[in-house]
Amino acid sequence: MTDPTPLTSVEARELLPARIDGPEAAVGRLWDPSASAEAPADAVVVLARLDADAWAHWRDAGIAAVVAPSTDVDALADVRDGDPARWAVADTRLALARLSRRLDPRPAVAAVGVDASAVVDESARLGARVAVGPLAVVGAGAVLEDDVVIGAGASVGAGARIGAASVLRERVVVKDGVIVGRRCWLHAGAVVGSDGFGFAPGPHGAERIHHLGTVVLEDDVEVGANACIDRATLGATVVGSRTKIDNLVQIGHNVRIGTDVLIAGQTGIAGSTTIGDRVVIGGAAGVADHVEIGDDARIAGGAGVTKSVPAGDAWGGYPAQPVRRWVRERYLIGRLEAIWAFVKGRA
Amino acid sequence: MTDPTPLTSVEARELLPARIDGPEAAVGRLWDPSASAEAPADAVVVLARLDADAWAHWRDAGIAAVVAPSTDVDALADVRDGDPARWAVADTRLALARLSRRLDPRPAVAAVGVDASAVVDESARLGARVAVGPLAVVGAGAVLEDDVVIGAGASVGAGARIGAASVLRERVVVKDGVIVGRRCWLHAGAVVGSDGFGFAPGPHGAERIHHLGTVVLEDDVEVGANACIDRATLGATVVGSRTKIDNLVQIGHNVRIGTDVLIAGQTGIAGSTTIGDRVVIGGAAGVADHVEIGDDARIAGGAGVTKSVPAGDAWGGYPAQPVRRWVRERYLIGRLEAIWAFVKGRA
Amino acid sequence: MTDPTPLTSVEARELLPARIDGPEAAVGRLWDPSASAEAPADAVVVLARLDADAWAHWRDAGIAAVVAPSTDVDALADVRDGDPARWAVADTRLALARLSRRLDPRPAVAAVGVDASAVVDESARLGARVAVGPLAVVGAGAVLEDDVVIGAGASVGAGARIGAASVLRERVVVKDGVIVGRRCWLHAGAVVGSDGFGFAPGPHGAERIHHLGTVVLEDDVEVGANACIDRATLGATVVGSRTKIDNLVQIGHNVRIGTDVLIAGQTGIAGSTTIGDRVVIGGAAGVADHVEIGDDARIAGGAGVTKSVPAGDAWGGYPAQPVRRWVRERYLIGRLEAIWAFVKGRA
Fold first, then answer.
1. pLDDT tens digit string along A209-265?
2. Smallest Cβ distance to B242: which of C206, C250, C304?
């Protein structure tokens, strides 16, 4: 842990962005709103709501600054000299994201350079300020662009390319020939580029189809811990820019995912399926192979999608259907007691 | 494998605990009740039921001792000199657990000390009898208390603390600052303390919320192979004492799990949800974010829990509901054929 | 990547097997049928259908050979001198599998021998042409038969045996005493032989049952990335020959799986369940403990199997039931709107 440089009101005005009420403040740490202890004098707290009670609490807690919705800050009736600063924002969640990044005490990398215990093939090419952690492996012909961080025990296959400022956490496996864009984060244990699950029935049992394609992660993609993204049979499995994939998700071979998609934990996308832009998929959902999820569609957690979903639709259930119909179906099933009583009474 | 020292009747009386009938015996290995081969003369078998047929079988198999329910042992009609010992217990499963621990031939650790190939930061603090396996990594300022075992290729992050006698199996990742209690077992590939899945929509796509909190595993917690437990946004994700988490389970950021909870394989608990004490959750269940599962609740395998569950309740289904209601709903759906015939006949 | 030696018509006739129409050809790479670019002159493409339009396209693309169903090749009306070769096959998927294996440019192993950074116990026994990758660990008394490949960072436990020509990819963990057959493929991050999830309630909380059994993978088994197969309490968890297990699948302790089974991604099989031969299980299905799935049964993706399934049956749904009944149930639920209107109208 290293203490970040303090964040001043002036910087906060630009960063969050925020309108600054009250005293100048310089904050060094982001405070947990649910913590019961007193706050240190250099702490900032982000509150989704700031009413009179919350204001009284945080004033007493001795915090340096309170981030809250502008309308809540405007409505504060009781403000005195010496009170904490109020940083009024339009979007407290965005402010939280930016403060969390700015005040993250964890160094992205322990030290720039290649750890003595790492095994880096001499034909690999490393850009400026690259960090390769202990016991990591970088294969022949791999390319690590500027500012890449390779975590302890991670493995980059032969001929793979990791884009500038991307981070591979502990034990990540990026297989041979995989292309990772810029500023991607791959969390511990993720596997990108393993052979897909494809077999052909032969006279002596299933024969494996070797997957000669690859995986392309575009820029700013995030892949969760122990998640798996399989390489294509031929061609590429593609994950679009700014798409975020949670822990233990499975992406099958030849899947194509658009940009700005969110896929929550333990969801599975079977082979050759296409996911449009800005799609949101809840946790533990399953999407069958060879279907298409249109742009801006929303899939409920736990849903089992067996056919294509039109753009903009919200689907849920197993098998999945439009949410409106699913809710109606649940309502009608709730009427079964009455229906059965009626039928029994007249049969 | 190392042969454990033989377990005598005297020790068994205390350990299981058991009432000893028949000859003194010393056993060195736990025998598989489903094995068809003859048993070696130093074997003990644990039987959930011991009737006359089973007794005849095991007497002939030449086994040293039979562990069985006291009532079954009392009811044995045909016992002669030279027969195997009968160890009568109140709870055969508990006896199995204790015998399996006592007679485990696998050394917990190949050798105490730090393997020459491990990379241990010089600022890490190691207690007595700590074992750090080959190619493991221990980061700056990490603390390994007495008798900790770090498996091959496992990684302990900067500032993390591993409590006395805890065991990290192969390739486990414990991230920076995570607190692991005493006597915990983390199985191969588990990831504890990765950043949670939290983003804020920004003008140029989702912006990641850095997770500045941590994970606290209390004492005697077990985490399954390739399971993931995310660190909190702020504060801590907490797993209570004696809670057991199976393989491939996902625990989201800021989840709080009570004590003595059992969570079976592939279940997912989404962010900020609270699980009470002694809750039992079946395999592949999903629990939504920000809900509360009360103490002693039971959740069926495969259930999709979308709202809070009262203490003591049993829920199942997708979306989940009280099991009694779910069973009734299944019954009524089974009546649909008759209902439809009735309606068609009169419409 | 290394260019494979070109595959000639003569070899293709035997390998696929194919009937050869048109010119002799020697191909060096397998081409993606969905690629829009022109094909290089040494490429072969496998087409599930070859009609006149496709033929015109691939002729123009300048490809060396087209693999297509015999009936489609026979029906080609417009064939001239200088056209690409037609390799007529009975089964294009099988042809794809065999071409993908024959033309895989990825060397199975960077170099035969033990990498200088690997940690191999001196009591381990290595056969001919074994390759142990960087930072891999091989424990005491382990046996690696001829032609085994151990990937970077993989770990083979004490006393484990890896059969001839089996491949462990990056970071695979094979625990102590596990038996892996011949020609098995274990993908990155898979864990085979971790302790099962078994506990006994004791006076001070759950007591762990140490799992003293093992795992046996027979020949030609495939285990997906980050999948987990637990060792038996006593005896063995068994996976039969030619069975293929996809990514993130969980196989519980004491499960017995037959031969030629296919289990798709994220499916879970709970403890002590038996799966027959040639069973096919879709993705994200769950099978309860202590049930039996008969030979040739088919389980739909997402199904929750709570009881035994007869041989040859197809089941789906949650809880799972015969597919025919499940489809009928879905149909009847679709009639609920009409039923409810009828009942409301007469109540």
1. 999 999 999 999 999 999 999 999 999 999 999 999 999 999 999 999 999 999 999
2. C206
Residues contacting A125, CB < 8 A, separation 6+: A141, A142, A143, A144
Domains C7-102 and C113-326 belong to one CATH topology: no
Give the A:C interface size as CB pairs under 8 Å.
Answer: 192
Mean pLDDT, rounded, for A64-91: 95
User: What element of type H or E holds A89?
Assistant: strand A85-89
Portion 48-107 of A in contact with B at CB < 8 A: 91, 93-94, 96-98, 100-101, 103-106
Closest Cβ opposite residue B318 in set C158, C318, C343: C318
Q: Which two tokens stand for residue A255?
A: 């899947």
Q: Tell me which chain A residues have a C-beta less than 8 angstroms from the C-beta of C284.
A: 268, 284, 286, 304
Active site residues of C: 253
Cβ contact, residue pair B199, A284, below 8 Å: no
In whole angstroms, what is the distance from residue A155 CA to residue A132 CA?
A: 10
Q: Which residue matches tokens 């992205």?
A: A108
pLDDT surpasses 70 at B108: no
Average pLDDT of the residues in A289-307: 98
Nearest-neighbour CA in chain C from B111: distance (Å)? 12
Q: Which residue has the tokens 């042992």?
A: B73
Question: If contacts are CB pairs under 8 Å, which of residues 122-141 in chain B contact chain C?
Answer: 133-135
Chain B residue nearest residue C332, CA to CA: B336
Mean pLDDT computed over C267-277: 98
Ordered DSSP codes for B318-344? TTTEEHHHHHHHHHHHHTHHHHHHHHH
Strand partners, B309: B293
Report the distance separating Cα C221 and Cα B178, nearest Å: 37
Interface ipTM: 0.96
CATH superfamily of C7-102: MurE/MurF, N-terminal domain (3.40.1390.10)
Q: What is the model's pLDDT at position C182?
A: 98
Q: What is the SS3 assignment for A321?
A: strand
Q: How far apart are the first and last CA of chain B?
A: 74
Q: Domain spans of chain A?
A: 7-102, 113-326
Q: How far from chain centre, in Å, is Cα A243?
A: 7
Candidate from A96, A188, A302 with C-beta closest to B286: A302
Collect all residues of chain A within an 8 Å Cβ-Cβ radius of residue C32: 213, 234-235
Please provide the CATH number assigned to the domain covering A113-326: 2.160.10.10
Distance CA B321, CA A330 (A): 12
Rg of chain B on CA atoms, in Å:
25
Question: What is the rounded average pLDDT for all residues in chain A?
Answer: 96
Global confidence as pTM: 0.97
Q: How confident is the model at residue A2 (pLDDT cuts 50, 70, 90)?
A: confident
Q: What is residue B164's predicted lDDT score, i.e. its pLDDT? A: 98
- Among candidates C30, C24, C55, C58, which has minimal Cα distance to C42? C30
SS3 per-residue string spanning chain C: CCCCCCEEHHHHHHHCCCEEECCCCEECEEECCCCCCCCCCCEEEECCCCCHHHHHHHHHHCCCEEEEEHHHHHCCCCCCCCCCEEEEECCHHHHHHHHHHHCCCCCCCCCCEECCCCEECCCCEECCCCEECCCCEECCCCEECCCCEECCCCEECCCCEECCCCEECCCCEECCCCEECCCCEECCCCEEEECCCCEEEEECEEEECCCCCEEEECCCCEECCCCEEECCCCCEEEECCCCEECCCCEECCCCEECCCCEECCCCEECCCCEECCCCEECCCCEECCCCEECCCCEECCCCEECCCECCCCEEECCCCEEHHHHHHHHHHHHCHHHHHHHHHHHC
Q: Is A253 a catalytic residue?
A: yes
Report the distance separating Cα B244 and Cα C314, nearest Å.
Answer: 34
Pairing verdict, β C199-202 and C236-239: unpaired
